[in-house]
Amino acid sequence: MAKEITPRSEDYSQWYLDIVQKARLADNSPVRGCMIIKPHGFAIWEHMRDALDIMFKETGHVNAYFPLFIPKSFLSKEAKHVDGFAQECAVVTHYRLKTIGDTPETRQVVVDPDAKLEEELIVRPTSETIIWNTYRDWIQSYRDLPILINQWANVVRWEMRTRPFLRTAEFLWQEGHTAHATADDAMEEARRMLDVYATFAEEFMAMPVIKGIKTENERFAGADETFCIEALMQDGKALQAGTSHFLGQNFAKAFDVTYLTKENQQEYVWATSWGVSTRLVGGLIMTHSDDDGLVLPPKLAPIQVVIVPIPKPSPALDEASNKIAAALRAKGIRVKVDNDDQNRPGFKFAEYEMIGVPVRLGLGMRDLDAGQVEVARRDTKTKESVPLENIDQYVADLLVEIQGALFERAKAYRDEHITKVDRWEDFEKVLEEKGGFVSAHWDGTTATEKEIKEKTKATIRCIPLDGVAEAGVCILTGKPSTQRVLFARAY
RNA sequence: CGGGGCGUAGCGCAGCCCGGUAGCGCACCUGCUUUGGGAGCAGGGGGUCCCAGGUUCGAAUCCUGGUGCCCCGACCA
Length: 491
Prior knowledge:
Layout: H1 12-22, E1 26-28, E2 35-37, H2 39-58, E3 62-63, E4 69-71, H3 72-75, H4 79-85, E5 91-94, E6 97-100, E7 108-111, E8 116-123, H5 128-138, E9 147-156, E10 170-180, H6 183-203, E11 210-213, E12 225-232, E13 238-248, H7 250-254, E14 258-260, E15 266-268, E16 270-277, H8 279-288, E17 305-310, H9 315-330, E18 335-337, H10 345-354, E19 359-364, H11 365-370, E20 372-377, E21 383-387, H12 391-416, E22 418-420, H13 424-434, E23 437-441, H14 446-456, E24 459-464, E25 472-473, E26 480-481, E27 484-488
Parallel strand pairs: 3-9, 17-18, 17-19, 22-23
Antiparallel strand pairs: 1-2, 4-8, 5-8, 6-7, 9-10, 10-16, 11-12, 11-24, 12-13, 13-16, 14-15, 19-20, 20-21, 23-27, 24-27, 25-26
The structure holds one RNA strand of 77 nucleotides.
């Protein structure tokens, strides 16, 4: 039929694009690299956002909003920061259009050359600069610290190559920006938020992650230390799913943000920033979905349970369906009763599998007469008949089970794809044939890291936080090393 | 920014080589029959053939120049 998805084994990249389109998550837009997030895709993001927002507030943060536009001069105040972002900034140069041409045929709208801005504005690629410019005015004393602010926003990075959710020119994210009196406080904050991200990824997305530290080469532009969570996709490529940065005093110095200590000394403020984006939706897709469509963990599924009357709605089936739905809703479950009488059950089954509804209840007179309902799991594609009595509790338990099963399945795959390697031939071979993370020794130099990338396309995803000290020699140079790092090809 | 591909109905495409009534499938609308894993039949509506110029009696088709998007690389969350 018209809804075929390219199998993963045939073309993983096309499979991903098919899922995005067929599960109605997003469309391409008229603007290159930008996507239209459709209701079903946006609902997933909303559930992510809501869960994260609660976690941020539980850790003491408040939300605020800073402007989309940043004076161009702000970006250049932190030298490394500008180096990192200058290449991909959208710039606003004018503030007015005008119409030229006297006839309908020749009429057109052009940029009014008289409306040139004195200082160009950049569309934020990230908000450190405008926020630290603001913090200068907000911070005088140690009593003003810490400042723990998050914002939900869109940002623009003019990427050369884009893919829906994974890398778009405009994306939605949250960015936390905190200010602290001491380096220890800031470092503790950066680590705390990394933990929040890891907890969210594993408990809500059912996506196992490895917490680690980025190498200097992979560090955020303007950070002293970048922490990250790294996930593994089904094609063996890694995905950076979130980052938390210890910014040191770099932005405080760039924007002259100081505070008076108890001892009446002027000190520069210490900073962190941390963010996750709509990229997580891409990670979610690639962690769980299959050749039949999207597979979603119940906690993030916009519809957790759908009730399909078989073969079509009828008064008796509607009454029974609504009764089940009411009982499920009373347990806080997001349930849809499919009232559509146009499409047949087979069509609906395929459709709900496509969009990733975790549990489907099929209810026909045959079931009703027997006092049971057909329960179908999206993750395992299994079906069974279950008594209608206490079906609400059964389904509630099943959703919990599915959430756990998805995580365990993803974790088993991930763990199977962390390969310890000590010889260069094996290193290349594992990357080429098996994929996944390769755990190997590295001599700690950027030069070696870059050479490995040139040879294999693999980068150091992170130095795992739970790594153990272990003497060894660098996989490429044979120089001494004290700890293994994780290499992978990445998105 | 390099390499490749494609712009024709909402979507997917054929037609182009060899110029002559704008086509097919899906979707959509109407009706009937169906209905426990993507229904069938009949009828119907919908077009700036990417844009501009050129050749021609006549251009979706040939020529020239633009332009947009997609995919693959290098660069990046």
